[in-house]
Amino acid sequence: MQRNPQLAFVVDIIIGAACYFGIMLSVHLITGAPLHPKTPLDAIKFYKLTFPKSLLIWWIGIAFTGGIAALFNPFRGFDKIHGTARYAKEKDIKKMGLRNDSGVILGLKSGKWLRSLEARDTRSVTVVAPPRTGKTAGIIIPSILTTTSSFIALDIKGEIYDLTHFWRSQFSEVIRFAPAENGSMKWNPLSSKELPTSWTDIEVHISRICETLFPLPEKSTHWMEAARRIFRFWALYLINMNGETSCAEILKNVLTGDSQGAVEAALLDDNLPERIRLEGNMIIDMGDREYKDVFSTFNTQMDIFLDPRVAENTSDSDFSLSDLRKKRISVYLVVSDEDSPRLKKLLTVFLEYAANVYFRKQPDDDELTVMIYLDEFKRLGKIDKVKEIPALGAGYRLGVVFVVQTVAQLNDVYGEDGAKIFFGTTSYHVYFTQTEESSAEKISKTIGHKTVRTRSVSGKLLEVRNKTEGETGIPLIRANDIMSMSKREVLILAQNNFKRPIKAKSALWFKDQNLRKAVEWRPQEATE
């Protein structure tokens, strides 16, 4: 209903008069006093502070009813039909669950950290931050320094490891898995530490790895499917023989001598599981030309394991991903810029397997929360299993922080519908200043409009003027305002509260005295 101050005043007068008449009538009915405007005043003088209980109840009821009627006067209100967006206040922030003692640090408001839920109802976060805006320094590093849960962090260039691993080593085992570097810790998805216990589950595990190492193209899938068959055969055969294997060992067997003849020789064993025999028979049934093309496809997809450092670092496992539930472990996936394209599939295998491990069962009360920090995760391409974490992870105490440079990056990798899933299932969105207008426009539209009062005056200078009041809607924050934010500013949106954005500061670690001390801390032996 349209706001009308004059009519609102008239309605208030009517409500007040009705209340007074009600009080006058109550005195008349209860005491028998004449129905007269002075009756309530005479009753007050007569009874002073010793009103009859029945009269007191009447008066309280009439006053309450009148107050409610005045409060909801339809002509007084500011109906906000054009938008209800406004910036969050402290009570809104608490309602959003952002004043926690632990969890991912999203920003700084009123001198206190804004932190997502972590313990029993783990939440996920999407961060949209162009290059050099401080998303690593303002979110990932502060969060790792101030939480004690296990985590996995995609660490491009090794910056996160360099700044946090000494501090984490006080209470957590530290794993630096850098597949392309000498001296890295080792991890092998086909080691006995990572293989399931049942043979059927092992078959499923191998098939999942195949799907990542040998992605099917949109057309002409035959060669890739046949290459998967070669991998499945040798993986299952070697696990059946030795209890474990590795990608480098599989590649070695395929590249050594007559690999098709080697499959035929392996099938002479009458005790092989049926799946191995089925895969092997389909391989030896290939003609020479077909096998040559499949062989070439296989080698192309597996050539990363010809790198002796990658082969060595994936030959065994120094840790098991399931251990992150049992004890505090900090896992850094360290990859250089130049190596990230060729290591993409290996890292995808790691992350997809991690998601599968943590989704096997809901954790017991004494098991740990696991967080996954994916800085610049667009580099990895499409990872469907990781995309499922925000929707399912809360009940499994598994959370993920996705970091992208623009909204368009998610569209490029996952499509527009896939990008909507990320923003629809992550509980919190953190936006740094934007450099692309399209991203800024989407953020502005997500937040929505606020309703503002307008006033216009019509008529000539010496004539009677008409004053008109109304409301209109304008964006709470415009796209150009988002693009003009300083690097220290962030906008935080909470699920189901997008119209209550939080204007906050980035919690840059080097601006906080305690975090600086944590980064600079070294064990005594490191300083001697």
Automatic annotation (TrEMBL):
A Gene Ontology cellular-component term: plasma membrane
Transmembrane segments annotated in the record for this chain: 7-35, 55-72
Keyword Membrane: yes
Location of the protein in the cell: Cell membrane
Molecular function GO terms recorded: DNA binding
CDD domains: TrwB_TraG_TraD_VirD4
Protein's membrane topology: Multi-pass membrane protein
Keywords: Cell membrane, DNA-binding, Membrane, Transmembrane, Transmembrane helix
Sequence similarity: Belongs to the VirD4/TraG family.
Descriptive protein name: Type IV secretion system DNA-binding domain-containing protein
Organism per entry: Pseudodesulfovibrio senegalensis
